[in-house]
Amino acid sequence: TLDRSSAASDVYKRQTDADGWFQLSEPVMPGETYPVIVLAEGYRPVAEQAFTIPEDATSPYELDVTMEQE
Q1: Contact 15, 3 (CB under 8 A)
Q2: Residues with Cβ < 8 Å from 43, sequence gap 6 or more?
Q3: Are 52 and 28 in contact (CB under 8 A)?
Q4: Per-residue pLDDT tens over the stretch 41-59
Q5: 18-27: Cβ within 8 A, 24+ apart
Q6: How far apart are CA 17 and CA 34, in angstroms?
Q7: Which of 27, 42, 53, 58 is the most buried (most CB within 10 A)?
Q8: End-to-end distance of the chain based on CA atoms, in angstroms?
Q9: Residue 70: pLDDT over 60
Q10: Contact present, 60 and 28 (Cβ < 8 Å)
């Protein structure tokens, strides 16, 4: 699951498929900063309050996340 929020009322939640892929309904913009929260059953949450999409990012942008089991 990824949450994207550029304002308090602008939050996007998405469930990944079995391979961990997802697509947001609204695009994120290269060079912009977003809070990101990744949750998975049986794993510790991963959160980043200020994740910046690189200026030269291509679409789709792949975000690699390492999670630890609880």
Answers
A1: no
A2: 67, 68, 69, 70
A3: no
A4: 999 999 999 999 999 998 8
A5: 23/60, 27/59
A6: 22
A7: 53
A8: 17
A9: yes
A10: no
